[in-house]
Specification:
The protein has 179 residues and is mainly α. It is built from 7 helices and no strands. Helix 2 packs across helix 3, helix 4 packs across helix 5 and helix 5 crosses helix 6. The radius of gyration is 29 Å and the shape is flat.
Length: 179
């Protein structure tokens, strides 16, 4: 599992990667080749080269973990408030139908918390907190399977047009009769 919480590495995995970098630092001090280190630690040579460059510039301390790349802009308490707003439905926030879109959620975040998110930032925020895309749980009651089957047999072929060639094709650029 790559990202169990949906956003970043677990603390254990982050610790494991830091230990790998520090093992590499010990081997840098002994003068071992990057390709040998990469093979033994089961990482790419390019990663070892980046680690060596950081080690040259700042020693083993430069290879220690810097923590998460970014912190969430909405706290857990704020996200709980956002979830409460989302459960009210889009119509309560001025939407004309009952579908939450990323842009609508972005608008709610901006109005409620005075924060600006990008559309992709909203998606990552929701996924990180366990929200998924809306998918209908069942088919519409009004669906008529016979009408759909008839449409597929009769109407759809007319809209597509015939894909069959009028005469058989030939894979060669030259015609078979031209010798």
């Amino acid at each position: 599992m790559r990202y169990p919480q949906g956003g970043g590495l677990t603390a254990e995995r982050q610790q494991f990667r830091e230990e790998l970098r520090l093992q590499a630092a010990e081997r840098f001090a002994r003068g071992e080749a990057s390709s040998l280190i990469a093979k033994d630690l089961r990482v790419s040579v390019r990663s070892v080269q980046r680690w060596r460059q950081a080690w040259d510039g700042g020693g083993p301390g430069a290879l220690r973990s810097q923590g998460p790349a970014s912190l969430p802009r909405l706290s857990e308490k704020q996200f709980a408030l956002l979830e409460a707003e989302l459960t009210k439905g889009p119509a309560a926030h001025g939407g004309e139908d009952q579908r939450w879109t990323l842009s609508r959620v972005k608008t709610v975040i901006g109005r409620r918390f005075h924060l600006t998110y990008t559309i992709q930032g909203v998606r990552k925020l929701l996924v990180r907190n366990g929200w998924t895309c809306q998918v209908p749980a069942r088919r519409a009651m009004e669906r008529d399977d016979d009408a759909v089957a008839g449409w597929v047999k009769e109407v759809w072929p007319c809209t597509e047009g015939s894909r069959r060639l009028v005469e058989p094709g030939w894979s060669s650029r030259t015609k078979p009769d031209s010798r």
